[in-house]
Design goal:
mainly alpha; 6 helices
């Protein structure tokens, strides 16, 4: 760098790899704080602390969902009752191993591993704290629309033009049952 060139330092620190904490409307404030701190640690390249925070967040999610167990391994196994896929459970155990290495062995994982772990946690947060909220919002919007329609003249919905599917056709699953 030339001698007369100025060097700038930005605060908060930014890079092309920085993450922005997502907002989960139904997440308890204490869990939201842990999540935000983990993202801050990741952005500051404090990977051991970030991993410990993600592990704490997973423990907090289990506690919030009333999953019992003497340790995180047992709690992850307890998630089988509310998670739709056993592969998720197996992968959460890998997440636990990474957290154990960070906390007990003081071994920093690679940034790519931590980034992926953050993605897994964000998927869990989405599943547990946003999906139901968004689905209930959609349900309320549909009720309001149906109420508005019921107040108007009761008539059958307009027929779709050729090549266009009706909402009723789209709401039938492959087994032929209405969803």
């Amino acid at each position: 760098m030339p001698e007369d060139a100025e060097e700038f330092e930005y605060f908060p620190k930014r890079s092309q790899f920085s993450l922005i904490a997502k907002y989960y409307s139904k997440l308890r404030p204490e869990l939201r704080k842990i999540y935000q701190e983990a993202i801050t640690c990741y952005n500051e390249e404090a990977l051991i602390l970030c991993t410990a925070g993600l592990r704490a967040l997973l423990e907090g999610i289990c506690q919030d969902k009333k999953i019992k167990g003497k340790n995180l391994k047992a709690k992850i196994e307890g998630l089988k009752t509310i998670l739709p896929n056993k592969n998720i459970i197996r992968n959460l155990h890998h997440f636990r191993f990474m957290g154990n290495d960070a906390v007990h062995e003081l071994a920093a994982p690679k940034p790519t591993e931590v980034n992926l772990a953050i993605g897994v946690i964000e998927d869990l947060l989405n599943f547990f704290y946003e999906l139901d909220y968004k689905a209930s919002q959609l349900r309320e919007m549909r009720r309001a629309t149906n109420t508005t329609r019921a107040g108007k003249k009761a008539s059958s919905p307009p027929k779709p033009t050729p090549g266009e599917s009706s909402l009723a056709e789209l709401a039938v699953d492959p087994d032929g049952e209405q969803t």
